[in-house]
Amino acid sequence: MATVISRMLFVFFIIISIPCISAVNNPKGFSTKLIHRNSPLSPYRNLQTDEEDNLFDDRALKSSLRRHAYLSAKQQNDQPNDFYGFEFPDGTGYIAVLSIGTPPMNVYPMLDTASDLFWIQCAPCVVCYEQRDPIYNRSASDSFIDLPCENSLCSELGPRGTGCNQEDKCTYNLLYVDGSRSSGFLGAEIINFTSFAVNAETFAPVVFGCGTENLNNVKGYKLDGVMGLGASNLSFFSQLVNDTERKFSYCFGNISNSTDQGELKIGENAFIFGDETPLEVSLGLYYVNLTGIGIGVGQPMLPINWASSFQKQPDGTGGVIIDSGSTLTHLEQEAYDTFKKAVLDELRINHNIYPVILGTYRECFAGRVASDLVGFPKVILYFEGLDNKLELDIWSTFQQLKSDSNGDQFYCLSFTASPNELNVIGNLAQQFHNIGYDLENNIISFHRMGCELI
């Protein structure tokens, strides 16, 4: 009983001092597990039907194009304040392993660097969709507190994203590009963090969206919620750090291997090391300065005009965004054409491999990545600064798809042409790397490593 009372007092103390949480109970920051959504540890595993990732229903491509449309709208600041772009249909996302409330219960939100609010489904529900694990019940938690309307975080989502009801409770409403939506109340609750690297659990209070009216239109997957890692005061990341430790990092393992795991670190715990390059935050998006692309370590960069293809333009268009929610990497059309030609030439000349479908957006091939692409050179993404780069092996450059109904195997480029001038570095390109975001010093770091070493 004493523990319950102390946790309630802890939340109450924090709610009157938000947004200055400053990681009260753990000044060194927080770490939590990341698992692939098809991991044996995930409640989402085995929910996908066989046809969803095959060549003729390329869900990774479809979801990445929808995600790109959202990022483009957000870049131009022309989407409504209650319009967000979360997509969760293609099997390549990483989810965090957390527990919430008193007593604690597990939740599995997906990481999203291009949104801010951390929300989950909440009972008692007005309308909730079925999810694999139990829905969090705010009435059964001894530490849940509603966020009052006068709290500064109540206005962070804008006038159409948040509001105030007759009971002086802060409300929210989010609409996603696929027609899914979540609405409910903002509240404060205890979040427990469990790390692979640290045996002891740590906990902190976080303001979150308690979704009581939810619609999920994603076929097969009924996610628990979304963990927003944007730069606003409301984001999950921002609430857990102080002004001098505004940093976080994540490491994705092999996304093609559902048993691989990763780690999210927030605050002083964040790993900011390796190759560092400038980071710009604008309209809730994370921009990097991509200066070139090469095929093969030590080989010349491809003849791409980086100023016209990768540089952010004075009107705010273009540029390069790094994004956890995009599966594929989008390149501006001229840059993509140059890159695609170089890849196809390498496959034809040195591997005797030809595309089976000449699609508008990406190229696909018959066979298996593991056996067919032995010896294919690394693709190098170069960034501003001395020798700053991401090195992409075959599992980051290509994506193995499911077998078709005849058992035939196919794989596709994990790059696609951008519908406009905006370039997006997706999560397939980020795997096998620790990615560190340092918002205090406006830098991002890349370090290729095994995530189990963190």
UniProtKB/TrEMBL annotation:
Which InterPro entries does the protein's record reference?
Answer: Aspartic_peptidase_AS, Pepsin-like_plant, PEPTIDASE_A1, Peptidase_aspartic_dom_sf, Plant_Aspart_Prot_A1, TAXi_C, TAXi_N
Name its GO BP terms in alphabetical order.
proteolysis
Alphabetically list the UniProt keywords: Aspartyl protease, Glycoprotein, Hydrolase, Protease, Signal
An annotated GO cellular component: extracellular region
Source organism superkingdom: Eukaryota
Query: Does this UniProt record's set of keywords contain Cell membrane?
Result: no
Q: Which family does it belong to?
A: Belongs to the peptidase A1 family.
This chain's protein is named Peptidase A1 domain-containing protein
- What organism is the protein native to? Vitis rotundifolia (Muscadine grape)
